[in-house]
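Quick start: read one record
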Amino acid sequence: MSVSSPYTLIPARPYESHASLSARIEAVPSLTSGRTQASRCYAEHWLAFPARPSVTSDRTLWPDLPVTHWWSTVADRLGPRELKRRLWHMTPGLLPFVLWVLPHVDPLTPGWLLYLSMNCITLAIAGCYFGRTFSRPGERNCLCSSIGYSMLVMFAVLLFPGQLEIGMAVFAIIAFGDGSATLGGLLLKGPTLPWNREKTWAGSLCFLLGGIPMAALYYWGESRPGVSWAVALLCAGTAAVVSAFAESVSSRINDNIRVGVSALVMLVVMNHFLLGWS
């Protein structure tokens, strides 16, 4: 809205500061005619509207909660590419929860094996296709990461169709263990490992904190017949500790492959040692 007169044109800005309002009101010429005096009063009434914070500049989209500060800190420290990479790495690890609500037998039927294999292949293709959006500097593509991630899970499921808990625990260790190690290392930093100065103690600790609970949960939830929490924690914990060491070692082999192979071998050994083969 604007107030016009034969002498000036003053746009109405209800939310601007009082200092600029006073200067703008003084710009309206003091005239004696009734019409112009009415226009001046009209302008003073609307332009002197009490100033309020700008809706678009001061009002935030999200409420001021601790979780929003935490998320902002994580996003700032990681950067958009690494944040997207972590989401791509860890989110697929939630897929095994779907198996808990879908009835399936043990050992898995060929139809179930085909279904899980197609999911792993789709995940690998999606990772390769979208990898350019979250690749790191100097990284040509995410082929090794995607294949090492998905194909190892598929290999574990196909190799042990009667022990689906092994494949799901491998899935959890790669997704949440390896994913948490990178996340913790970048966010917390701290002292480096004596055998690899590019890795930190914080990253290895986060590997264990993220990998052990989720791997034990998946192992316990998919075991047929059921096992105790102690057995699940012992199997998953041993595999996660060995995998955390494999992740921390300096090597040209992709860390997803190192972590997945280490987790698979140790889970097979611990499963045979504690439970035998049914």
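Residues 12 and 266 are 73 Å apart (CA to CA).
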